[in-house]
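1st attempt posting a full record on here, be nice pls
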Amino acid sequence: MLGWGEGCTREGYRRPLRVPSAPVRENMSRMEAMEATRVDRWLWAVRLYKTRSMATDACRGGHVEVNGAPAKPATPVRVGDRVTAKVDGWERVLDVARVIDKRVGAPLAAECIVDQSAPRPKSEYVAPLFMRDRATGRPTKRDRRKLDRFRER
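the predicted structure (as tokens):
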């Protein structure tokens, strides 16, 4: 007996031919027709979170708001909505310019958002007063005291 697509001529037994996937631009035109999608899928698709499960956890943890109201993962997002999300201790305020639910390239994902967030705060790193050259061996007693004083600050 012949299996799928192995010369079988009857109509119901032939496997349908695979159509090659459309280019990304054509997928974007299909996605533009979407009216709404889940907020966790949109946050993942515009690359705000690395994985969809991270976006879902952020929604469940109360770190995401849609139009000022706390958002569950299934909250719908439409064009013109304002999404506020806390990512790595930084609050991002994004306006939805295009609704997508599949992950696309970074340049196309950037076209789907309008970033209204404040600039990222400067890190509060202070240059150390005590620097040692690399590969100079063990610190001396004096070096060790300087290092301890620096760490107490």
